[in-house]
């Protein structure tokens, strides 16, 4: 790594604040940097080298994605096709090759318009995801055996999803302008690499990350359009409008919220209305399927159902899950209005999506992708992020071992039911842990690593530095920028790392 130049040669600018280096403020990041030669040098930090933060983050994200593809090699070489349990024991399952034939793409059926053979009468995915799947089928060679076509279909989708992964990492790096290296948390997230090609969730995650970037730049309409497109690919992105509403209420930014809401509504309608008008039954399948779906993998509802002599009905779970989600929304709104400083947009975005995941009746392992970029923007603390990721990796292994147990017959290879319940509990506790840390940062803003560096709300766009017009309790009205707190800095000398207190942030 490049050494720090002297004051006479350092290419600084009085107009641009110094980028935040995780290796100076985070002990885990500092220790981890030793694997690649130590903390980043000043040439790379200030962009005078080709190795700018965004380029490094993008390349690392692509490299980790490629490792995730290698992890799927046992399935690609036969486990998807020759044995139900082997794709679980190797933890390399993916929906993509199975749905190529199972959802009519191999037969040239048009999603939402053509009925499917079997129990699933129409494609059960939102419209924009269906378009993504259809485009991938056009790029898949139609010659050879069905196994060969399914392999190609997975590869084509993997290539398209790799672009989405790079977009996500780059958008996160650019959202907090002074914290570009936080994007490495996305790029290096092990659960991100392991789950990226299980399903098509990365499309919605990429559009959501791009929307967050647009909002951070003050482009409210572009944010709304991208969020509307994301919602047309997956339902969860629409939840971000709730936290944005209460934040704009506190800051009095109604015009910007209106532009965001209008852009989201128009973009969603442009994608959905043509299919809704000409193939309503097929279009509505996603929504009816979500409502009628019973308690499924990964949720605490499953633990209740499998340990109860009288498991709850689907209608009961739907009602209770909605009540719990509404309570969480009310709690987040109250937290927004009573917090001593207005919460950052990314913090509330993470909390609302985490609440949906925790209360939902199903948690597929790829749902962790929804939270990864939001978690990095909400709390870019390496220790806490890696603790949460370890819990998600444990769940990733747990669900496949449980499915191996249930599909291996009398051999009973894998994890029994009670063991799987513990894996679910680990996932739930890991997500709750990160939620608690984010709530603590909101209630005690001096502990927020983003605000300790001197920022207010880098992802907040028009909310960044805005004054409050509506608060409850003793919350302060002016949205003052953070004072310069004493932050432990890791300095690197000839004897290795040493910790000091630096007030020069």
TrEMBL record:
Any one cellular-component term (Gene Ontology): plasma membrane
Q: Where is the composition biased (Basic and acidic residues)?
A: 15-25
One Pfam family, please name it. Answer: GT87
Task: Name the InterPro entries on file.
Answer: GT87, UCP010361
**Topologically, how does it sit relative to the membrane?**
Multi-pass membrane protein
Q: What is its main location?
A: membrane
For this UniProt entry, which segments traverse the membrane?
Answer: 50-70, 122-140, 152-172, 184-215, 221-248, 260-280, 317-339, 345-364, 385-405, 420-443
Q: Where on the tree of life does the source sit, at the highest rank?
A: Bacteria
Stretches for region Disordered: 1-25
UniProt subcellular location: Cell membrane
Keywords assigned by UniProt, alphabetized: Cell membrane, Membrane, Transferase, Transmembrane, Transmembrane helix
Q: Which GO terms describe its molecular function?
A: hexosyltransferase activity
Similarity-based family: Belongs to the glycosyltransferase 87 family.
Protein name, as recorded = DUF2029 domain-containing protein
What organism does this protein naturally occur in?
A: Streptomyces shenzhenensis
């Amino acid at each position: 790594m490049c050494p720090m130049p002297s004051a006479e040669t350092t290419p600084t600018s009085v107009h641009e604040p110094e980028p935040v280096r995780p290796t100076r403020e985070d002990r885990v990041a500092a220790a981890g940097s030793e694997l690649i030669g130590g903390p980043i040098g000043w040439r790379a930090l200030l962009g005078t080298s080709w190795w700018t933060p965004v380029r490094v983050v993008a390349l690392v994200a692509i490299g980790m994605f490629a490792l995730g593809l290698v992890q799927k090699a046992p399935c690609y070489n036969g486990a998807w096709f020759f044995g139900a349990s082997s794709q679980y024991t190797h933890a390399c399952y993916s929906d993509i090759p199975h749905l190529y034939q199972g959802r009519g793409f191999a037969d040239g059926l048009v999603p939402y318009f053509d009925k499917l053979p079997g129990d699933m009468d129409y494609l059960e995915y939102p419209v924009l995801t269906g378009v993504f799947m259809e485009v991938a089928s056009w790029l898949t060679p139609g010659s050879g055996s069905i196994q060969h076509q399914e392999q190609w279909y997975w590869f084509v989708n993997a290539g398209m999803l790799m672009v989405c992964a790079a977009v996500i990492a780059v958008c996160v790096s650019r959202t907090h302008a002074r914290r570009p290296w936080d994007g490495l948390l996305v790029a290096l997230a092990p659960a991100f690499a392991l789950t990226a090609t299980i399903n098509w969730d990365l499309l919605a995650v990429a559009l959501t990350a791009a929307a967050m970037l647009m909002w951070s730049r003050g482009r409210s309409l572009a944010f709304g359009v991208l969020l509307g497109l994301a919602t047309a690919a997956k339902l969860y992105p629409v939840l971000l409008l709730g936290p944005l509403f209460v934040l704009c209420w506190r800051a009095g930014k109604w015009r910007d919220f209106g532009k965001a809401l209008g852009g989201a509504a128009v973009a969603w309608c442009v994608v959905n209305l043509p299919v809704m008008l000409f193939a309503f039954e097929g279009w509505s399948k996603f929504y009816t399927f979500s409502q009628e779906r019973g308690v499924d993998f990964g949720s605490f509802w499953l633990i209740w159902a499998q340990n109860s002599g009288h498991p709850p009905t689907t209608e009961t779970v739907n009602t209770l899950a909605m009540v719990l989600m509404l309570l969480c929304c009310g709690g987040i709104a109250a937290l927004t209005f009573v917090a001593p400083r207005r919460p950052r947009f990314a913090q509330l975005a993470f909390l609302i999506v985490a609440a949906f995941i925790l209360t939902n009746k199903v948690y597929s392992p790829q749902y962790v992708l929804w939270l990864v970029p939001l978690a990095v923007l909400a709390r870019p603390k390496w220790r806490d992020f890696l603790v949460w990721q370890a819990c998600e990796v444990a769940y990733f292994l747990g669900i496949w071992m449980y499915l191996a147990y249930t599909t291996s017959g009398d051999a009973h290879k894998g994890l029994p039911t009670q063991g799987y319940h513990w894996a679910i509990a680990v996932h739930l506790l890991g997500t709750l842990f990160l939620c608690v840390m984010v709530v603590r940062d909101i209630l005690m803003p001096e502990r927020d690593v983003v605000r300790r560096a001197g920022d207010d709300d880098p992802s907040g766009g028009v909310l960044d530095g805005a004054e409050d017009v509506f608060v409850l309790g003793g919350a302060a009205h002016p949205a003052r920028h953070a004072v310069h707190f004493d932050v432990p800095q890791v300095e690197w000398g000839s004897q290795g790392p040493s910790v000091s207190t630096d007030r020069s942030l």
